[in-house]
Amino acid sequence: MKKVLLPELGEGIEGANVTFWYFKEGDVVKEKDDLVELTTDKAAFNLPSPCSGKLVQILLKEGDAAKIGDTLAIIDEQGA
Amino acid sequence: MEFEIIDIDLINYQRAWDIQREIFSQVKERKISGALIICRHRPVITMGRNGKEENILSDKRQLEKKDIKIYNIERGGDVTYHGPGQLCVYPILNLTYYRKDLNWFLRNLETLLIETLSEFNIKAESKSGDTGVWVGARKIASIGIAVKHWITFHGASLNVKKRDLANFSLIRPCGQDIIMTSMEDVLRKEVKITAVKKTLVRCWYEKGAFARIGRGY
Lengths: 80, 217
Hints:
The complex is a heterodimer of chains A (about 80) and B (about 220).
Chain A: E1 2-5, E2 15-21, E3 28-29, E4 34-39, E5 43-48, E6 53-58, E7 65-67, E8 71-76
Antiparallel strand pairs in A: 1-8, 2-4, 2-7, 3-6, 4-5, 6-8
Chain B: E1 3-11, H1 13-28, E2 34-41, E3 44-47, H2 60-65, E4 69-72, E5 79-82, E6 86-93, H3 102-118, E7 125-127, E8 130-135, E9 138-148, E10 151-159, H4 183-187, H5 193-206, H6 210-213
Parallel strand pairs in B: 1-2, 3-4
Antiparallel strand pairs in B: 2-6, 3-5, 6-10, 7-8, 8-9, 9-10
C-alpha cells in the first residue's frame, strides 16, 4: 500500500484545500495521472499519482483542508 | 532548449486558453524550456477554483448585453475581469528545473510587474498575504495560477488603460471589496500597450529570478 502525501508546496505554505479528485475510490490509476487538485489562495496545484494501482481510500475529501505531509489517499500497487 | 516569448496580442479568451494548453504540452514534452505568453482579451469574466457565484454582481442579461462570457477555469483565486486595456502574462514554466515552490513563483511574478511599473515611474508593491500588485490601497495587477506536474500556466493581468476599469463593477474582484486602478489612472496620461509590453519583456530578461529562466535550460 502506498500513501499519497501532500508534498512541500513552497516556503511558508502550511497546507492547501482539497478541491477536486480526478478519480473515485476503487478506480485504477496510472503513475503520473492527475490525481487530486488542491488550492492555496491564488494557486491551483495538481498532484500526480506517485504510482500505478487501485485507489483504495480517499482520506481527505473535496472541501477538506490538508496540511503538508498529510496522507490524502492510499493506493494499492498490487491492484493495477 | 529554447525559451519563447509568444506575443499574441488581442485574442478571445477561449483561443488563448487553448494556446496555453498547447504550450503547456510542449513544455511537458520538453520541446521548449518554457514560454511567456503575452496577450489581451476581449471582455470576459473568469472564475478560478476558489470562485463564488455571489462575487459576480451583474445579472446574466446585463452580461449578455455587453457580450461578456463567464469562463470557469482551472487557476487558483476567485473571480476576475479581463478586457483589451489589460496586458495578460502567462508564464508556462517547469518549476522542477528552477524551484518547486509556488510562493517563489508568485513572488517573482509580482516582482516582474513591480519592476515593469517602476520603469514607468509607478511605485507599486506586493502585500504580504494578499497576492497581487498594489499602488497604495488600489490593485493594479491580479494574479492566479495553475500548476500541473510542476508546470505553471495562467498568470497575471496588469491594468494598463483606464477604459476597462468600469467593468470591474460587474464583479467583486478576487472576492474582495477592493478598488482597482490602472497605469493610466495613476499616471494621468495615455499609456500605450505596446510600450508596456516591450518594457515587461525587457524586465523579464534583465531583472529578478526570471532572467535566468529567460535563457532556457
